[in-house]
Amino acid sequence: MKKLLCFLILPAALQLSAQSPAIATDFPDPTVITAGGKYYAYATNSGPAAKFMNIQVAVSDNLKDWRIIGDALPEKPSWGYRDFWAPHVLYQEQLKKYVLFYSAETVDTSAGKAIGVAFADRPEGPFRDSGSPLIVGPGFEAIDPMVIRDPRSGKYYMVWGSGFRPLQIREMDPSMTAFAKDAETYAVLPAGADKDYGRLVEGAWIDYRNGYYYLYYSGDNCCGVEAHYAVMVARAKNITGPYIRRGAVAANKSSVILERDAMMVAPGHNSVIEDRNGKTWIAYHAIPRAAYDRKNYGRMLYLDRVEYRNGWPVVVKEMPPAIAVRWTDSVTISAGYRQTAAGEKLPVYGAQYPRLLKLSTGKWLAGYTVLRNRGYKKDAHGGLELEISESSDNGKNWKPISTIADPGRDLDNAQLVQLPGGDVLLAGRSVRWQESYRLPVYKSSDGGKSWQFLSIIDANEGAPGTLGTPDKGMYEPHFYFLNDGRLAVMYATEKHVTESPSYSQVIAQRISPDAGKTWGKETWVAHTPGHPQSRPGMPVVDRMLNGSYIVVYEVCGPEDCGIYYKTSADGINWKEGLGTFIPGHQGAPYVLALPNGNLLLSSNRGTVSVSRDFGRTWKEQDMPWRHSAPFEADWHQTIWQSIYLFGNDTIGIVTSRKNAPAGHAVKIRFGRIEKAR
């Protein structure tokens, strides 16, 4: 293995995204506090794995790794019936107690919601209710309590509400079981003031910074299929107001500082916490977009940084730091046939069009085309076959373990996928030129050592010569799994070229209800109505961190094999037309979704582009074989690139590199991901 060094700067691929849930189960209306050198989070009634809790409590040493440890309020109050919501916990120094404020449905359900108070000696509880609610109100008026000790006066205040009424604030008695004597209730923020989300306001939180009291609040629908929720902010010089909404002074007229994005739906009901290093964080719940698209509406805990800029809080989405890829080893998977298993010696015409698969056992398989002759011509024995090689050391060394042939035909375009039960499927293209095109599927139950024919995805059969002028082939199948576990495939087809209107080539999709045994009807993913010379093809699909799917493909013809893409929420329904052009690439694209949400895109041009926003924008990066010497001697004229993760800090670019005498060799260039200098 020859070592070459090169650096590629791109977003870190291996750190946990800040937009991954901190607690990936239903954990609504979170409050996060510090106590005893740890962080504690409290949430509305729910619980992991159907273990119901009145008030959930979780603990963390670092705000990143959380463990739900039980029910902070294991015994219901005598006055409370259900719906133990929106907990807030603080430590009252005079009482030397942790105090839990929460809202609940009263036993007399006609009375409406109420706010209760409970006490404990430890932050995790158990908290015991004081015996009677602090306040009861009709409907949803008495909900979402938050209590703050005013840094200026030392007095305690509770803000709560609202049920389509204003958020309210009132001074508390130090006992925490009553309001202060003769204390006035102030309406601090009306419902309906904010156009986009303000129809209903709730989930208040007050944070004091630089002489201002910042009132965070959420609206206007937290939950379910119609969830429409965001965090907004107002500020005041005094804790009781008057509060000025950000939208009243901001250029964009919006009070919103946190709303839905590509990763999540309906963020809101927040708390604000300062960590041990003095950094400020906003904790909130949101529905992961992938879960929302699957009609799973659990609200999970998220945390993001907050910075106060120009007098207002700004939510800072933590982006992965820039990293460098140090290109290191180059290995050869195959240079093509020299001798068949039967002992037949063949010329070395090379190997090409590689695709890899990591098995659940940790081994890797590579499927690629090998040429018995110079390829793509009629031959009684067939000119092209598929060879499968195996690596047991994470791609460093490879050995052939099987061959798939379709006698009298050319077989190429290998694509591999492993089913949940462990079986491996391989799809390819089998062709007898201008007579017969098929997309066969083979199955292996022994890790790729032997294969059995399973099904045909699609076919176009004809008498000798009848499919030509124009040709009606089909090419390049690519497997992927849908959200519901069904197996889907995309491929390019010319079957519709003689139809009216004519399509020179389209990208089609089929779905299998039975793990590849049969295939459903053809639907179209990419095509150009009224533009029959355009040829979208070579599709590659991956599922992104936000749960949506992205497909990339080339479009030859007038588009000169430029690269285009589309996205889909479910991998089934795609927008009409040709898609969106990605500059800087040409021919045979491949896309890989990294664990932190970044996308890597390669093509025959020998470059890789990076997207940090789920395909909306791309930044092109040079690759080693795009450089001048010393790379030219070893890496030039590379085609059919694909990208794979080989470990937490290693990626590999798999490609067909031109051999000096003839044909191509299948090679991998490994790169180690390091911090950028």
TrEMBL record:
<keyword id="KW-0326">Glycosidase</keyword>
<dbReference type="GO" id="GO:0004553">
    <property type="term" value="F:hydrolase activity, hydrolyzing O-glycosyl compounds"/>
</dbReference>
<feature type="signal peptide">
    <location>
        <begin position="1"/>
        <end position="24"/>
    </location>
</feature>
<comment type="pathway">
    <text>Glycan metabolism; L-arabinan degradation.</text>
</comment>
<feature type="active site" description="Proton donor">
    <location>
        <position position="202"/>
    </location>
</feature>
<dbReference type="InterPro" id="IPR036278">
    <property type="entry name" value="Sialidase_sf"/>
</dbReference>
<protein>
    <submittedName>
        <fullName>BNR repeat-like domain-containing protein</fullName>
    </submittedName>
</protein>
<dbReference type="InterPro" id="IPR006710">
    <property type="entry name" value="Glyco_hydro_43"/>
</dbReference>
<dbReference type="Pfam" id="PF04616">
    <property type="entry name" value="Glyco_hydro_43"/>
</dbReference>
<dbReference type="InterPro" id="IPR023296">
    <property type="entry name" value="Glyco_hydro_beta-prop_sf"/>
</dbReference>
<feature type="site" description="Important for catalytic activity, responsible for pKa modulation of the active site Glu and correct orientation of both the proton donor and substrate">
    <location>
        <position position="144"/>
    </location>
</feature>
<feature type="active site" description="Proton acceptor">
    <location>
        <position position="29"/>
    </location>
</feature>
<keyword id="KW-0378">Hydrolase</keyword>
<keyword id="KW-0732">Signal</keyword>
<dbReference type="InterPro" id="IPR050727">
    <property type="entry name" value="GH43_arabinanases"/>
</dbReference>
<comment type="similarity">
    <text>Belongs to the glycosyl hydrolase 43 family.</text>
</comment>
<dbReference type="GO" id="GO:0005975">
    <property type="term" value="P:carbohydrate metabolic process"/>
</dbReference>
